[in-house]
Amino acid sequence: MLEKIDLSKKIDKETYKKTEKEQSEKLGLLQRQCKEAGIPVMIVFEGMGASGKGTQINHLIQALDPRGFDVYANDKSTDEERMRPFLWRFFTKLPAHGRIAVFDRSWYRQVTMERFAGKIPDEDLSGAFHDIQSFERQLTDDGMVIIKLFLYVSREEQKKRFKKLESSKETSWRVTKEDWKRNTEYDRFLHICEEMLQNTDMDYAPWTIIEATDKEYAAAKIMTCVADCLEDALNKKNLNGGAKEKEVPVRSESFKAGVLSGVDLTKSISKEEYKKEIDRLQKKLEFLHSQIYRLRIPVVLGFEGWDAAGKGGVIKRLTSHLDPRGYKVYPTAAPNDIERVHHYLWRFWNHVPKAGHIAIFDRTWYGRVLVERVEGFCRESQWKQAYQEINEMESHLANAGAVVIKFWLHIDKDEQEKRFKERQANPLKQWKITEEDWRNREKWDQYESAVNEMLVRTSTTYAPWVVVEGNCKYYARVKILKTVVEALEDKIKEVNNRP
Amino acid sequence: MLEKIDLSKKIDKETYKKTEKEQSEKLGLLQRQCKEAGIPVMIVFEGMGASGKGTQINHLIQALDPRGFDVYANDKSTDEERMRPFLWRFFTKLPAHGRIAVFDRSWYRQVTMERFAGKIPDEDLSGAFHDIQSFERQLTDDGMVIIKLFLYVSREEQKKRFKKLESSKETSWRVTKEDWKRNTEYDRFLHICEEMLQNTDMDYAPWTIIEATDKEYAAAKIMTCVADCLEDALNKKNLNGGAKEKEVPVRSESFKAGVLSGVDLTKSISKEEYKKEIDRLQKKLEFLHSQIYRLRIPVVLGFEGWDAAGKGGVIKRLTSHLDPRGYKVYPTAAPNDIERVHHYLWRFWNHVPKAGHIAIFDRTWYGRVLVERVEGFCRESQWKQAYQEINEMESHLANAGAVVIKFWLHIDKDEQEKRFKERQANPLKQWKITEEDWRNREKWDQYESAVNEMLVRTSTTYAPWVVVEGNCKYYARVKILKTVVEALEDKIKEVNNRP
Questions:
Q1: Of A420, B117, B177, B344, which sits with the fewest C-beta atoms within 10 Å of its C-beta?
Q2: Secretion signal: which residues (chains A, B) (predicted)?
Q3: A43 and A129 share a domain?
Q4: Mean pLDDT in residue range A49-64
């Protein structure tokens, strides 16, 4: 999902100054409170080269009392370190209760830079992720707060910065051959980062993506994020002493990593083009359907999107040429009585397709992190841990050979209003629109924020999210069918090429 | 650790009848309470062939209201099941809130019987364990109680039972060729079970070993274990509604899996033999020490044991011929001020040996599950999760190439008293004995129970516990030096044979 994140985010001078001042004071206070409460904190800076880690660390610590923190730069390991198990250098640097340790690069080096350089064989990778997960789980179980920041710039931005650094004698040494290699092979490095993020984005130690194109935006987001995490930790510590889990308010919405804001909704195609394309794709799908049946490939397609974004229409076009014995559409409504007394994923597990079959979900298990989150139908801890649970479920499906794709049908608020009104005016479509649709619409911003977080946390290499520009229905339908066709073709090729 | 468990445990008729009646009534009541509280429960029966799973399931459910449970027998997977991801058959069988599902074999089949039959390649193994772990974590996070029972009989006992089954026409079909194969290659199957247990003994879903030689002992232990787990779940559910975590009393000590009860403390050797052997072994060690230095093998030796069991004397003999630049002894006392404000494993991480060096710990990180547990220096949840944390640390060391061995020096209560009195009488040794030693001695039973649980939960293939019969000091010293010598020789051979 990294490549879809909107990196153009900026902050204006005035808002920046205001945020800077507010968060700075807040951080100082929170540091003192964490010290009193004996809460140890680790702040990890990872990310692209020249994304400004050094500058940002420097900026962040200005707000902190220097007697209460340590900064560790983690370059290549030393001889002493290489003589010991990988985690030794980090375990020995754990902050004491009430102290803060800031890491400029960290235990993630092995699964990012070293993996890129081919120094870690693929078969060691899952062990390395496992070590990281258990390391962080052990620490957070013991009360550690782990804040993980991934500073992200585009390939072009990085190139520009490298060139600028090289142009001056004082800074040119900072750009290495390896740096340039990661720029030249940016996509490969991005993919490695993507896998790192999806394997280590745990509910007890989640990642925050920092859009680092605009330095002031990044600085403000980092301060706000750190302050929020410390505040949450203090709240939780106080609550644990008292009553049961209480909802901790979600703040700083303005700094959530955005995918939707970067979606170009003007994309469209003409009716003629649409007719031609959709006809071609449907015939193709018909053919591929028999292939996947023969090769026993299971397929899971999930559809989510705004009300009236056109899910129904797409599913109709998707299935019109398919053999009905080989696919099934599952509409997902509010859970019934039986479903309510089971694990929330149980009803979806019941509909896992057989090998060779297609299961199409009209709304999905993502209800947990969308409607249930926004409407408060589940506790905060529940939707927060759902990202990992859902990733695990989808990874299990993918490991069993399934094609798993999720579509987010995106329209803007105006387009939705237009469609709602059309539906109300058309006696044949009136049933499609209810009071609830209008109510949901009022919570647009909350939903948008939930959608953004969902897209960032659950788009994986094995089960990607595809954001579909849906203002033009024709464009949306063609994009979706095309995506499915290509995914099936890829999978068929993979299976046929197996030795 | 399986092979060290005392399988001779029995129960007398009268105690059995009493336990049976008590637990039966209790189970009925607890089932109703769990139903009211909406707690779903899964009870998993795994174990050796002919260990009596069917009989025991049948016996257990007699105590339950049949309207509230389902029993699932998990034979080889059906065609329908093979067409879907591995976990599908279990996820779809989840009990609803308030119901109990009993599994006769389960999702562990793949990592036991199928692994034994060579149906699962080694490279898929860690993925399979990972699936199991996340499956159980997802469920318990959602409030599921998972009770996992491993029914264990010896090879001889199994053989006897197979023969008996075969001797009658009605039952002979129940013994298959695969059953006999697992008996013939009992040690290999045991090793597979051992690895299964150590990879899936999580604090949220721990295993209980059922010594199944005596059917009535097993039945009583199973009932008691299930009742205890349900009671704990109810307590926790009630507590979560109210104040913070409270200590749940640990009960049913009498049914804890025992290792110590099977230790033969009469083992001894003569002074002459001792002198000859110790001399030979020390010279051998001196030679091996230079080898491991050359090959850069790190070595971690941990010593635990009863007060006055002879740890100091052993460590002296172990190190007397070693180059002091190549080893270090770390005595472990109560944590100091600095250590107290760090993670409890931090101080031990600081002493992880460099490659090629030996670290000897006189008392270890196991203090967490011994003295801290018994004396209440940490919370129940903390020592319970420590088993997994410690296993993870030791596995990290072993993966980095280290030899890791832990010794439990065992003596009986009489021997300890004798030694205490000797120390008091001897002016040169008086410093070795304090009031605290006498106080600890009063808690012998509590410590014994903690030691048994520690040995069962943390003896792993990569970092085994060695229980040392210590009433005869000569015997103990020779056994320990011999164990170290053999482990080093094995490791050196392994490293030298590496391509």
A1: B177
A2: none
A3: yes
A4: 94
CA distance A179 to chain B (A): 29
Work out the number of other CB atoms within 10 angstroms of the CB of residue B134. 18
Residue linked to tokens 């997994």: B388
- In B, minimum Cα distance to A392 occurs at B134
Is there a contact between B350 and A92 if contact means CB atoms under 8 Å apart?
yes
Residue in chain B closest to A241 (alpha carbons) equals B244
Residue A180 has pLDDT above 80, yes or no: yes
Q: What is the mean pLDDT of residues A487-494?
A: 96
B202 secondary structure, DSSP code: B
Backbone angles phi, psi at B47, to 5 degrees: 145, -170
Q: Identify the CATH number of the domain in which residue A492 sits.
A: 3.40.50.300
Looking at the structure, do residues A208 and A87 belong to the same domain, yes or no? yes
Q: Tell me the two tokens of residue B43.
A: 């009870």
Nearest to B352 among A85, A240, A352 (CB): A85
ipTM confidence score: 0.77
What percent of chain A is modeled with pLDDT above 90? 74
Same domain membership, residue B135 and residue B41: yes
pLDDT at B242 over 60: no
Residues of B (294-323) whose Cβ lies below 8 Å from A: 296, 298
Q: Are residues A276 and A320 in the same domain?
A: yes
> Nearest by CB to A84, which of B84, B94, B352?
B352
pLDDT band at A246 (very low <50, low <70, confident <90, very high): very low
Which whole number is the average pLDDT over A273-295? 96
Instruction: Classify burial at A152, counting beta carbons within 10 Å of its beta carbon; exposed 0-12, middle 13-18, buried 19 or more.
Output: buried
Q: Are residues A464 and A478 in the same domain?
A: yes
pLDDT digits over A349-376, tens only? 999 999 999 999 999 999 999 999 999 9
| pLDDT for res A243 | 42
Domain boundary among B238, B257, B276: B257
Answer whether B198's CB lies under 8 Å from B387's CB.
no
CB spacing of B341 vs A98 below 8 angstroms: yes
How far, in Å, CA of A123 to CA of A115, rounded?
11
Tell whether A212 and A302 lie within a shared domain: no
Region B328-337: mean pLDDT is 91
Looking at residue B248, its pLDDT comes to 43
Question: Residue B243: what pLDDT?
Answer: 41
CB A256 within 8 A of CB A2: no
- Separation between Cα atoms, residue B248 and residue A30, nearest integer Å: 34
Instruction: Check A85 against B344: CB less than 8 A apart.
Output: no
Query: Taking the alpha carbons of A110, A113, A116, A119 in that order, is the dihedral positive or negative?
Result: negative
Please indicate if any CB of chain B lies within 8 Å of the CB of A69.
no
Rounded to a whole number of angstroms, the distance from the CA of B375 to the nearest CA of chain A is: 19
Q: Which residue has the tokens 């496992």?
A: A130
Contacts of B343 in chain A (CB under 8 A): 91, 94, 138-139, 142, 144
Express each pLDDT in B5-60 by its tens digit: 889 889 999 999 999 999 999 999 999 999 999 999 999 999 999 999 999 999 99
Find residues 92-121 of chain B whose CB sits inside 8 Å of chain A.
92, 94, 96-98
- Are A8 and A92 members of one domain? yes
Reported as a pLDDT band with limits 50, 70 and 90, residue A124 is confident
Of the three residues B257, B283, B305, the one that is the final residue of a domain is: B257
Q: Degrees (nearest 5) of the Cα angle B388, B3, B256?
A: 60
Whether B344 has its CB under 8 Å from any CB of chain A: the answer is yes
Domain with B84 in it: 2-257
A244, A338, A344: residue with CB nearest B240: A244
Same domain, A326 and A267: yes
Residue A313: phi and psi, rounded to 5, are -60, -40
Three-class secondary structure of residue A475 per DSSP: helix
Whether residue A389 is predicted with pLDDT greater than 50 in this model: the reply is: yes
Q: What is the pLDDT of residue A254?
A: 59
